[in-house]
């Protein structure tokens, strides 16, 4: 999610362009953190800091994957607050509003350490090279892939196989549709600049959600019996659907709670260590309703919806499956505790 282009430009808001369809800016830093260090950033425990925000679905992916794989000791994490100004995500959750490792008030500073003329959005997630205090990568799609494939030497014992080799080709197809039609589809609805653009985006979104409802009727997870990265990617949108996308983004044919299969699936994941304990609904609502002020000029944050249902029994056990396959769940946190 970016603080200067499409998702969180400023607290004054500038997201909807009259008469236009919404188009996400997918330009990111192409450098990667890899085992062989071919881009100048070798995988090293303790060298990097993941900067995320619980409000952001793209960053939430990285937070979930880091926790599932047990990378907390190898890759530290800094969290930005949910609401920011036109310049940047800020570290206002930390004492004094300063990240304790980087010494920055704004994530923007890490981007300018990389390039003083950095021209693109200040996005989370970003992984910062602590010795130079410069962003190493901000490609949200690649970050979670690399956490699995490139950081495997630092995975916890029992870390799940989020990319089962026999399923990878099908996973790519499923994840592409989930991203294009659902993860990004809600934004195409919310930021549509014309009725025609909105209607087309709405139809595409609900076609995809109906497909997912059908797909998940006979399988516990998107790819079958175990959790994969495909589930991580879908979950972060589902978690935000009723609190934000249904009303704020006008994705209102149904609430998630009115889609029995997807709602049970979402609760199943939420109640799995790594998912619900990385989700902060208050920060999610604060971000969207305050920052997108051209959509919500009053910046009033709704009190609802009632979130009690997320902990209700989901009944998905009858489909069988083993959430973590041959691996194990990450440590269960005390109730009400968020992963750090």
TrEMBL record:
Glutathione binds at residue 89. Keywords: Transferase. CDD domains: GST_C_Omega_like (cd03190). The record marks 245, 288 as: Lowers pKa of active site Cys. One of its GO terms (molecular function) is glutathione transferase activity. Pfam families: GST_C_2. InterPro entries: Glutathione-S-Trfase_C-like (IPR010987), Glutathione-S-Trfase_C_sf (IPR036282), Glutathione_S-Trfase (IPR040079), GST_Omega-like_C (IPR047047), GST_Omega/GSH (IPR016639). Residues 312-340 are annotated as: Disordered. GO terms for cellular component: cytoplasm. Signal peptide: none annotated. Residues 153-288 form the GST C-terminal domain. The active site is at residues 56, 187. This is Glutathione S-transferase family protein. It comes from Mumia zhuanghuii.
């Amino acid at each position: 999610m970016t603080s200067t282009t499409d998702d969180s430009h400023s607290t004054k808001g500038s997201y909807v362009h009259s008469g236009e369809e919404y188009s996400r800016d997918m330009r990111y830093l192409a450098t990667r953190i890899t085992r062989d260090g071919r881009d100048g950033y070798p995988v090293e425990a303790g060298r990097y800091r993941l900067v995320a925000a619980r409000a952001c679905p793209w960053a939430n992916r990285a937070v979930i994957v880091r926790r599932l794989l047990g990378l907390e000791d190898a890759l530290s994490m800094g969290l930005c607050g949910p609401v920011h100004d036109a310049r940047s995500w800020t570290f206002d959750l930390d004492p004094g509003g300063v990240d304790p490792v980087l010494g920055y008030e704004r994530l923007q500073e890490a981007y300018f350490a990389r390039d003083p003329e950095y021209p693109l959005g200040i996005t989370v997630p970003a992984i910062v090279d602590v010795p130079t205090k410069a962003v190493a990568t901000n490609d949200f799609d690649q970050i979670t892939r690399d956490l699995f494939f490139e950081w495997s030497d630092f995975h916890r014992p029992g870390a799940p196989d989020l990319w089962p080799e026999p399923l990878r080709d099908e996973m790519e197809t499923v994840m592409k549709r989930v991203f294009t039609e659902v993860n990004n589809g809600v934004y195409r609805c919310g930021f549509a600049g014309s009725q025609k653009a909105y209607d087309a985006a709405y139809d595409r979104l609900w076609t995809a959600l109906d497909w997912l409802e059908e797909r998940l009727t006979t399988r516990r997870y998107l790819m079958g019996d175990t959790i994969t990265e495909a589930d991580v990617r879908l979950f972060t949108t589902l978690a935000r659907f009723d609190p934000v996308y249904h009303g704020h983004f006008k994705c209102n044919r149904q609430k998630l709670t009115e889609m029995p299969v997807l709602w049970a699936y979402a609760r199943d994941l939420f109640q799995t260590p790594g998912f619900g304990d990385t989700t902060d609904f208050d920060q999610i609502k604060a971000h969207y309703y305050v920052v997108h002020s051209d959509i919500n000029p009053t910046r009033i944050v709704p009190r609802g919806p009632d979130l009690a249902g997320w902990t209700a029994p989901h009944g998905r056990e009858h489909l069988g499956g083993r959430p973590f396959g041959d691996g194990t769940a990450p440590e269960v946190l005390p109730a009400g505790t968020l992963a750090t």
